């Protein structure tokens, strides 16, 4: 049974009531087009895959170790998981690279889906070099085209945010009539091996409403993560829809000086809305490899970190202390990793003072 997004139910109900009321008073109403909803379901997008694997057990703590990237995404914003079919940005006018900035391709520059942009151990699905891609469009709005890209060899999805320069275009399709699903054959260059990101732009036909989709695939017979064991279902609360926040420009990263500990940390704010914000810290090893790290963030304006991904954290007074997890503590010389978080603020939202210690 297909879950109907609460947003779509509300939109449909509102349109029906408005049309009925207008008819009673003899007014002709031209209904506003409903928003299209859909996603690449094979290979699954990051958000759709997390919803598909864990929607019936999204409070199961086993997810934190079995599927840590999805655990972080569910913790960051569970409403984004229920609304997996809404990763779009309107009004691009075909200028996709100018509309969606580097580092925010997997979220379509929408802070509701910001967790999809965070590097980490995203589950992959093994694919041959030639395979069919399936895009599911329950609203049947058609497609002007699909543009399908794959990351270049050397890109590391576990440590790097996706940028346009990381991608190679492998296919552009023609139009699709409004009849879901849309299926097209994809051929990947044979020099790609290991974990890669398949990036799809779906230009919906009913509006200037392109969807931006990141799917994690494994190529060339490399090691694929062990499939997630079937989780024990728990009661699922009724989801609510969080209003889309208005992103603010990314803050200039604030570096910390290199210390004797052998690592540095820099901070960037990726979005801000009424009472909340999202941020990211980049940890970089010094001239020697390290086996672990710890970063303290001292907040100037009473901010609080409410949830965090790709790190463990404790708070004391105005300081949040973040530590590596098992999969991102070891860094080669000059190598980097990132962790992200959501937080709350009031009044002012200045950048924290950072200190990085290698363990």
UniProtKB/TrEMBL annotation:
List UniProt keywords, sorted A-Z. Glycosidase, Hydrolase, Signal
CDD domains registered for this protein in UniProt: LPMO_AA10
Concerning InterPro entries, the annotation shows:
CBD2 (IPR001919), CBM2/CBM3_carb-bd_dom_sf (IPR008965), CBM2_carb-bd_dom_sf (IPR012291), Cellulose/chitin-bd_N (IPR004302), GlcNAc_Chitin_IntDeg (IPR051024), Ig_E-set (IPR014756)
One example of the protein's molecular function in GO is: hydrolase activity, hydrolyzing O-glycosyl compounds
Q: Which Pfam families match?
A: CBM_2, LPMO_10
Q: Give start-end positions of Pro residues composition bias.
A: 226-236
Q: Where is this chain compositionally biased, Low complexity type?
A: 237-249
**From which domain of life does this come?**
Bacteria
The UniProt annotation puts the region (Disordered) at 218-263
Q: Does the keyword Amino-acid biosynthesis apply?
A: no
The protein's name is CBM2 domain-containing protein
Annotated organism of origin: Cellulomonas terrae
